[in-house]
Hints:
Elements: H1 2-5, H2 8-20, E1 39-43, E2 46-49, E3 54-57, H3 60-64, H4 73-86, H5 96-107, E4 114-118, H6 121-139, E5 146-150, H7 159-163, H8 168-171, E6 181-184, H9 200-215, E7 220-225, H10 241-251, E8 255-259, E9 283-286, E10 298-302, H11 304-308, H12 332-346, H13 349-370, E11 374-379, E12 384-391, E13 396-397, H14 400-412, E14 415-416, E15 418-419, E16 430-433, H15 441-459
Helix pairs in contact: 4-12, 5-12, 9-10, 13-15, 14-15
Amino acid sequence: MSSVLKTDPMREVIESDRAHVWHHIAQHKSLETVDPRVYVEGKGMRLWDATGKEYLDAVSGGVWTVNVGYGRESIANAVRDQLIKMNYFSGAAGSVPGALFAARLVEKMPGLSRVYYSNSGSEANEKVFKMVRQMAHRRHGGRKYKILYRERDYHGTTIATLSAGGQPQRNAQYGPLTPGFVEVPHCLEYRSQWGAIENYGERAADAIEEVILREGADSIGALCLEPVTAGGGVITPPKGYWERVQDICRRHQILLHIDEVVCGVGRTGKWFGYQHYGVKPDFVTMAKGVASGYAAISCTVTTEAVFEQFKDDPSDPLSYFRDISTFGGCAGGPAAALENMRIIEDEGLLANTERMGQRLLANLRELQSRHAVIGEVRGIGLFCGAELVADRHSREPLEEKKVQAVLADCIAHGVIIGATTRSMQGLNNTLCLSPALIATEQDIDHITAALDAALGRVFG
Length: 460
Ligand SMILES: Cc1ncc(COP(=O)(O)O)c(C=O)c1O
C-alpha cells in the first residue's frame, strides 16, 4: 500500500488540505511546518495514513465512533442500496429503514417508544431541550423550563448545548450562553468535593437535590447526564449514585435525560450505559455508535407519555413539536444503523466488549502498579480512562503538555490513543482508551504495551 500512497496525488491531497481545510479542534500554526495527518484507508482496527504508515486505532475514529471497525462492506452496501432506491425525503414523511430501525431500537429500550431522527449528538440533545421547554410552556405556565447539567459533562458544540456543558475551558470565549441551564456537582470520587467519605455516590446525588431545592423544583424541567462521563474524564458513576438520582427526579417531577451519544449502542458492553444501573430515563439521545460513522445519524428517543403531550390538542396550531432537521430525513443513516445493529448482534460484540473491557482494565491496573504517574484507572466495557498525576499522594493533576507527550509517543509508535483536551483548566489529564467493539486480546495487549513503553520513554 505504501508505494501507492506516496505518489503525487497524495502530495496534492496534503497540500490542498493544508491550504484549505480548517480542521476540527486544531491549532493550525504547527501545520504550517508539519504535514497534516490524512487517513486514507481503514480495515478492522487498523488505519493507514497518506504516507503509508499503519496505526492501531484505540479510540474508534478519535471520538468513540467506529464501533464495528473500519471497512465494513455490508454497511456500505446497505447504504448504497438504500441511496439508489430512495435517498431522501424530509422527515415529515417516513422511510423504510427509518421505520424498521426505530422498531429494532426501542425493542432494546424497554419503557421508551418514540424515535426522533437528526444528524449529530448536539442536535439530538437540543431536541430534548426544545421538548422540555415546549412542555414547560404548554403544561406548566412557562415554569419548569430550566435544565440541569453536571460539572465535567459535555453535551455538544452548539451554543445551547455548550450552555448545558460542564467544561468551562471548552465554553470559554463562546458566551454569552443560553439562559436557563444550571450546573450540578460532578460525581468523580477520586476528586471528591467532600473529602474521603463513605457513601460518596449518595452524597454526590444529594448534591443534585440541593441545587433543585435552591432553584425550586417547580422551575426545573429536566436533568441531563451522561451515564458515564466521556470527554470530562471517563467518570464511571460511584456506587449508589444512579439509584438516588432516579429517586430524586421522581420525587421532584423532573424528567431524566440520559446522553448516550458516546455510551449508546454497545460501547459499555450493554446496548446502553444506563442499562447497567437500572435507570428508567424519559429521554435518551445517541449518535456516534448508532451507525459507527458510516452515515450521519442521531436519535432522540422518548416515552409515549412525552410523545402524547405533543398531539393531544390538534385544534391548537402550536401544540405539536415544531422542529425539523433537513438531514434527519436522509435514509442512508437508518439503513447503516440497521446493518450496524445486525453486526453487533450476529458477531456477539456486546459480550466481546465486556470481555475485552475487563482485559483492558486489568492491563491498565497492571500498568498503574508500575507507573506512579497513573493515579486512577476507570472504565466500563471498552470505554476506559487512566488519570495521570504529577504526585500520587497529593493527586496533583499532570500538566496537559505531558499528557499530550504520552499521546504523541503512542502515535509515533503506531497506536492512536486519546486524552481529555482543553476542557477543564488544570484537569485535562485523563488518557482515553476506547477501541472498536471487535478488539481481540492481541489488540488490547498491543495497546497497553504501547502505552507502557510510552510512559517509560516520557517519564523515564
Ligand atoms: C456525551 C456527548 N454528547 C454529545 C456530543 C456531541 O455530539 P456531536 O459532536 O455529534 O454533536 C458528544 C461529542 O463528543 C459527547 O461526547
